[in-house]
Amino acid sequence: MVDTARDQTLDFLTPGGDEVRWTVRPDRQAAPRPSQRSGIVERVWLVRGNDQPLIQRRLDPRANPHRLDTEIAAGLRLARRYPDNGYPAVLPRMLGYRADIDEPYVLWQPPPATEVGQVAARLGNDAIDRVLCDLLTALAHLAAAGIVHRGVNDARVRWTGEGAMIAGLPVAAFAGDTRTGFGREPWASAEQARGIGRADPRDDVWSAAVLLGVLLGLDGDSYRERLGPRYAVLLGDALAPRAAQRPTAAELLRTLSWPVPAVETSPLDSGREQYERIRASRAEAAAPAARPPQRRRRWFWSIGRGSAGPATRDCYLCLDPVSWAETDLFVWTDKGYKALDLGTAGPQHRREYRLRQAFRRCPNRTGEIGPHYLPAAYLRSGSPINIGLIGDTAAGKTHLLAGIMQEIESGVLGDFGIMTSAVDIAWHDDFRQSRMNRLYRDGEVLEHTRPVDTVDFADGLILGTGSRERPMMFFDIAGEMLQPGRRQSRATQFLAAADALIFVADPVRSDPDTTFEAVIDRLAHRRGPDGLLDIPSVVVVTKSDLLRFEEPVDRWIRARRADGPAESRDVYAYLHQRGRTAQLAPMHRIRRCTLHFASATGGRDRGGRYPHGARPQRCAEPLISLLAMLGALPARRDGDG
Predict the structure, then answer these.
(1) Cβ(529)–Cβ(419) under 8 Å?
(2) Which of 158, 276, 335, 584 is 20 to 30 A from 50 (CA-CA)?
(3) Would you say which domain of life the source belongs to (predicted)?
């Protein structure tokens, strides 16, 4: 939408999800306020017919298309929390938004124009008390919704004539988000200004205490001494250096004998409580006895033994045992596999170079399938990490794997001191060209995985930590092949060689995904004495960009790092609330399982393309969790938990 002084038609969604069209005209008395730093233009419009004013904050098309997402999500949290006739007058009120367009925008009800700082000199003690109580009430409401305002000051708090309210949520964050440096002292605490730790609603309590000092006409040096007995007792710890040492807004209201906003029960609470019961029962259970060796499993997970060098392992195609030997070696050519003679390789460095491109023909003793070949790097390195992606057709497995590989190439594993290289250079390059580049360079939607009789690895990497190397192989199979009614086939044999599973949950499909239970049933031989499956797993709610304005997805989809069990608890609660029992099966039936929100694209496609480009969001977090469960993750270098 072009920013002009002419009438405009606004098509938007209300917080209740209704589609609305308003014709508006510009308020000639309020000039637009562009911000070059944020790429947002703010303008006041008047609705044709009744002259209702509204504030539109519109994003420049050249800015990050998700720049307004947190502001919209925070406004929606408040709107969904309070009914129309019970919306707190002390809070900013969102009227609507439009997100998936070239110039996203959010609409707000205009606050009073008078900044509290403009009337500070003429406010008496009773009025100052009222401003403080109204502000703390607003902060208590925000804290109950998990929102940190971050911008409380004498301009953002407005005077209503009788009390105060907060204007807007332009720089809001969610409680628990990694802090980003914002604000200046004295309004922002040192933690907030420097971006230390995680956002906390008590960040705003600091700002409220500073505002009280402004209203009382105090300077910073004598602030504590000149508060007077009443406020000194009340706000004695409000300026503590760490948020955890400060009182909450609700606690301060109780001290003032002012009504404290009731904390509404969240529809997510039931699922969160059930998740905690599951965690507690797993923690109390005795450690399961070691699983007896399976007939076809000839090696076991051991970071110490497995990383030392090549050993016998199962072929992921036929499940026969195979070990490394410099015999039966081949290279791939345009005409197929061609025998490789290392006797003509020459010096050692040339020999190693050719081995990195070599494949070894599997002995294939049972002869159940035709001749097949395994990358030499897969056989020469330490114990493999074979990871299977599980999910129905169109669940997003292929896109998620492309997102995982894209984030790995951006260096996400480098935080842990892990270096990566391709198991097979040509194979990895083909995956990069046909998947990663098509999605992230060209912005094209990827086609679904097609059913085949046998499944080879989709891509593979060598994980290097110091002198240790281990191959990590990903297997992506068409969802049709995993259905419970489908007879066991060679295409699903890789499950017997899997070390970990990624269950891909589609949150927008209406019918239940039956592949999760079917795969778990096929691995019944790996149950422990307690009946739980013994294979590290993750559940990934993919396509989470489509849910980015729903709680709790709104917080996690923008989180930079996983936060232990907190994300798993929220994902479980989200799926539980929506009756997605089938997608929770891994958590119920597998001993070690974490749950995650992720998006491989960051936005909705239009006609098979992503108009703003595609970008992965948190795709590597599930993999990092799996590597931790497998004991293959060194300590993080950057210390950012």
Answers:
(1) no
(2) 158
(3) Bacteria
Spatial CB neighbours of 88, under 8 Å, sequence gap ≥ 6: 82, 137, 138, 141, 261
**Last residue of a domain, which of 255, 276, 296?**
255
The Cα 211–Cα 138 span in angstroms is 14
Are the C-beta atoms of residues 357 and 479 closer than 8 Å to each other? Answer: no
Alpha-carbon torsion angle 389, 394, 399, 404, nearest 10 = -30
- For residue 272, pLDDT over 90 is answered with yes
- Whether residues 56 and 157 share a domain: the answer is no
Cα distance between residue 513 and residue 398, in whole Å:
17
Least confident of 74-83, 124-133, 409-418, 558-567: 558-567
- Residues 405-445: tens digit of each pLDDT: 999 999 999 989 999 999 999 899 999 999 999 999 999 99
Average pLDDT, the chain: 87
The pairing of strands 321-322 and 313-314 is antiparallel
526 lies in the same domain as 566? yes
CATH number of the CATH domain containing 519: 3.40.50.300
How confident is the model over 301-329, as a mean pLDDT? 72
Would you state the pLDDT for residue 357? 87
Q: Which domain holds residue 134?
A: 116-255
531-534: long-range pairs with CB below 8 Å, 24+: 531/589, 532/288, 532/589, 532/590, 532/591, 533/589, 533/590, 533/591, 534/288, 534/291, 534/591
Helix axes of 125-144 and 69-81: crossing angle, nearest 10 degrees: 100
Alpha helices by DSSP H, 36-111 = 69-81
Separation of alpha carbons 280 and 504, rounded Å: 25
In a domain, 340, yes or no: no
CA distance 604 to 614: 9
Q: What does residue 587 show for φ and ψ, rounded to 5 degrees? A: -65, -35
